[in-house]
Amino acid sequence: MFKIRQITSLLAVLAVLFGFATESFAAKKSKTLKNTIKQGFVKCGVSQGLPGFSNADASGNWTGVDVDVCRAVAAAVLGDANKVKFTPLSAKERFTALTSGEIDVLSRNTTWTLSRDADIGLTFVGVNFYDGQGFMVRKSSGITSTSQFKDGISACTNIGTTTELNMRDFFNSKGISYEPVAFEKADEVVAAYDAGRCDTYTTDKSGLAAQRTKMSNPDEHIVLPETISKEPLGPVVRQGDAVWEDIVRWSLNTMIEAEEYGINSSNADSLKTSDNPAVKRIVGAEGEMGAALGLDNDWSLRIIKQVGNYGESYKRNIADTGILPDRGPNEIWTNGGLLYTPPAR
Amino acid sequence: MNAKFKKIIPQLLTLTFVALVFGFFSYNAQLNMENRGITFGYGFLSQESSFDVQFSLIEYDGSHTYFRAYLVGLLNTILVSVIGIIFATIIGVAVGIARLSSNLLINKAAAYYVEFFRNIPLLLQIFFWYFAALRALPLPEKADPIFGVFFLTIKGLFVPAFIWNNLDIFLYSILAVIISIIVLRSYSKKLRENQGRQIPVFYISIGLIIILPLLTFLFGGVTLNFQIPELEQLAKTSFRFKGGLGLPPELIALTLALALYTATFIAECVRAGIQGVGKGQKEAAASIGLTPNQVLKLVIMPQALRIIIPPTTNQYLNLTKNSSLAAAIAYPDLVLVFAGTALMQTGRAIEIVSITMLTYLTLSISISLLMNWYNKKIAIKEK
User: Fold this and answer.
1) Is B38 within 8 Å of A188 when comparing Cβ atoms?
2) Rounded to an integer, what distance in angstroms lies between the CA atom of residue A151 and that of residue A138?
3) Which residue, among B237, B239, B254, would best test binding to A if mutated, counting the most A CBs under 10 Å from its CB?
4) What pLDDT was estimated at residue A8?
């Protein structure tokens, strides 16, 4: 009898485990949104330190344009841009962290590609930085163009990035043999290149500009003018939660559209009475935009007031820090750039 | 219900429980992957990898498959493990014996070495050898040749490459040397057991090793040329060595760190083994007239090895597994190439991690089996 009781209790435990497991996986409407509100913070994956994009200062405060996307989501969902838990991730870890649920938004200078979008359970929600891959060399080498590269050049880079693939395409198309030296962490790439292990350092140009500031003597290095690839960088979410995907997408779009209409953190409140209905919709004074996302109507106003519009974020993190003062393609479309969002209506 | 049946029930229950737990987790994984639109399969192994690897023992570039990339990583892991094990053993045995030396200087130096290197985390040591020690090396254009032909630079160690003619004849001669030494040893053993005569096996062996291969050079048409690395200018201040054989600094740093770290543990195994042989054994051997060399070779070592081998096997396994720290310094081992780049480019986390785990398991079990076989061979054969 004793044995039978043991077995039944064991089976009961298993049944409970199973029951809970299957129920929680049933596709309810935005599990991520519900969990985020319950936890009280947005779980955001960022880089291990890339000035201008996501970088922690000595006291652990994260800043950067990628960080601001997560802050915007927190402002929209939780009402406070500081309610974000940042998880620094290597290029190798980032997608697994997202698909396994360790983070809910990946905002880590990640290139949008077909295979990433379609194949591994991810969804890219937009582009917050238009980038391209370039090369950095020592000024003293006298190299001013990639056309001066010769057989046997050694190139330092990160593993697990599109950089590794582009580099091969580039050197193959030029018929140059090269030695790829690929590290797991960006800091080690920089250290090895700085020590003279490699003749050139290749990654996205914004990354080169940012990492240059970390070199022992930044003035000794130059970024070559050629761009060898398209690298649209943007935030990523897990596939399968359409509501959460929309929240992240429109948090980013709000920042961009606010700049387009001249709404910024200091004038947002006063523009509630604007004559332009488009402006009024963005600051939540007209329409019911928040309801469609499962949020209140002030979600977008909070983003603009607490985080600022895209231009403010860019200026604060990338231009004023001297990384890339020229916005180039990352300018609003009306000013000749590529930033163009669908209308918020 | 008979007693036998009663005995089986708990085991059956345990087995069912384990199966259920595994089933639960794999079911969950399946469900999760389905929910997130992730597909499962090993088909990617035959796809083009489209990334290059810095250092490979077999021909490889991005036009080969992911499976080939896996082999590249595996061979690099085996390479660094084998070199590491050889160096760790040599250093470990030497230091282990030195720790028992009656010379205070040697004794203390060995003790300090062991205490210093085994108490610093291995990853830090790897970083030290790669970033601190290698940084102190000269750039290629400033490197002074060692013996005129070796160049140790920040871009690696460049040594002359061997260019052989009729290499096969030379290899046959080596094979002949090995066979004749084995025959010689068994003949000398017979001679000693039957007639009590000793022949100088060691010196004859040395002679064979030198003379036979030399003959192939004189009469077999074997020639050996050296291709000495040459400095080549890539740009105004950027140089490299061309020709010859280049060992990447990543391999050197990793081997150094692994060997120096593991050697400390092997040294302790060796010391324990030698100290574990009773003092009386040594005295008894000396009293029947064996020379000190014979005492060590015929009496002490055979008994000490029985104590040394099992824990040393553990150290070999540790070294092999620790080689996966290579990823930190860009040495393209299995973890960096396959569980790193390939995983990232394909996104097949479960498939790739499972293959990598199985591979390390297989490597470890192979080393264990080999060492167990050796251990059995030297164990006391009770008659």
Assistant:
1) no
2) 17
3) B237
4) 55
